[in-house]
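Thread: Newbie trying to understand structure tokens

Hi all, I'm a second-year student working on a class project, and my supervisor (Dr. K.) asked me to get a predicted structure for one chain before our next meeting. I've only ever worked with sequences, so writing a 3D structure as a token string is new to me. If someone could post the tokens and maybe explain what I'm looking at, I'd be very grateful. Here's the chain:
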Amino acid sequence: MQAEIIGAYQVLEELGRGGMGVVYRARHQELGREAALKVLLYPEADLLERFAVEARSVAALRHAQVVRLYEAGIAGGRPFLAFELVDGEGLDAVLRTQGPLPPARAAALVRQVAEGIAHAHERGVLHRDLKPANVLLDRDGRARITDFGLALLLERDAERLTETGTMLGTPGYAAPELLSGEPSELGPAVDVYGLGALLYALLSGRPPFRAATALATAAQVVSRPVDLAPLGSVPAELSAIVARCLAKVPTERFGSAAEVATALRDFREEGLRQGAQGWRKAAVVGLALALGSILVATHVGPPSSGRPPATQAASPARSSSALPRASQKTSQRAPRFDLKTCRWRQRTPARRLPRRELHSAVFDGRRVLVWGGRANERLLNDLWAWNGVSWECLEPGGEGGEPTGRYGHAAVWDRARGRLLLFGGKNDAGTIDEVWEWSPAGYEQKRTGASTPGRRAFHSVAYSEDGVYLCGGARDEDRGGETRYTLLGDLWCWREGRWDLVQIEGPSAEFARENASLLIHGQRLLRFGGKRHKLGYGDLWAWDLRTGGWALASEEGVLPNPWPLVVDTGAGVLIFDQGSRRCWLWTAQGWRGPTVPVGAPGPRQFASLTWDSARGVAVLIGGRSMESDEGTPGARDPVLAEVWELETPPP
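---
Reply by user tm_fold:
Sure, no problem. This is what the structure looks like when written as tokens:
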């Protein structure tokens, strides 16, 4: 029997059915990527609108804990959504086979869900149906949120799908206001309640409320206090978190999903690891207060809806909670950068970094890490750290080291996992298709799978919470025995150990370039400049991380150097042209500059620039001087080992 084709997808098997549609495991015929294909069974007007809401909602989300939407479309009159295929099972299946989870494991999973929901709330999306069946456990044991079929876009409240009196969600896990028939009053507090209900279920093996019928269950949710007896063996501090989430009145709950994540993180780090007795005592007080609010709020009918979504932050009396917060880390220098007063300063430590060009430099929160590159024709694979005063060699590298020496690669610091990631590059054999990960424990090469950006060099990467974005570059290709460069303009995302193709090519043929600069600024992925053959570009393109699609943000003409260096200072995007030594600052208000700051270093190319947010300085390292080598005829421009820092003097 010939396999069914839906759009660009070949159906492999049916995974499940529901009242709204059917879900298949399918494979994209061109990309070879498998997906979970959700197809609408009965394309009636109201279901089509619900389907469209799910597509709009999930398309706006990019987070490690949210199952990703690849695309939406209509094939043969049937709307479909293609989701990331998660190799795992729902938490409802886990509860059926394993029973209640250990408190530490349950807290860790719900914390992950809370972080994903906080991300959704930041982008104006409510889930409204949090329950074990809508959280998948992948093969690495991580929680992944799915099924935004009841999602509500906060900013589109006026276009809500439900009518007054209609019951939404799954009654046993739904917030009282969600069942009251007043959808216009909904806010992020409904998902805070859902997080508490999910945690209750993982700890007890059952929902907070359960009766013979859905209507009877809904009546219990609205009128009865939650029974915490099934949590009798659970640590009191964790029961306090559950109780506060499940408060009847929205204003009595945590002020946001992010606060829930923080409370659960505090429970894990302070309660379990340190066993602080004072914290446990405070948590018992919190449990008593939370129980009091639940017992008082036992009225029948819709409770107070709480704050509007735009002002969901808790009042000072509520935000502190009875649970102590984690100790605050030392705050970084407040973003401040003024092109009119900034100046360069050369740093000359006793121990010098070996001369290099075409290397990578990233900031790990404490220091600048420098990896790879080349010194003249010698390829490097050593790793160094600059703390603002001195250099330290973390990995000496050398012949036979892993990964092998290269240049034109890209590197990024994964803040969530504390890892240095290395992508691609070029060596004597040509362009490379490799992903490496470094931690203090050493190097590990990551398997990329079938879907991959392929061999490339002179590309750029940028880090965001949901993954590492990679754009452009160049690839060696054999054309009739002659090796030639092919310029690339595609966009990829490296997430959880796999590649996803975000866009095949840019808006035009000229979009394909090498040496462009890429960074995340707010909710936009910015790509600046680059080189196409011998022409350098100075334009700025922006990719909206919520909705996708490239848009030309600024067209500034051609710069002298086709490889400007770009960093986000927090106060704006700093662009440094290596050849002319000019600086620009780009903000939402437009361009400032150009300016050549006081004490600027000599012109160079193939250096690296990164932003040390702890000290509030831009750090320029190495490169190749564009000035002659002592005037020696035929001599190459020298490779440098200098460190320069661009800073704004304190007021």
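A couple of things are worth pointing out once you decode it. The chain has a mean pLDDT of 80. DSSP finds ten helices and 39 strands in the chain. Feel free to ask follow-ups in this thread.
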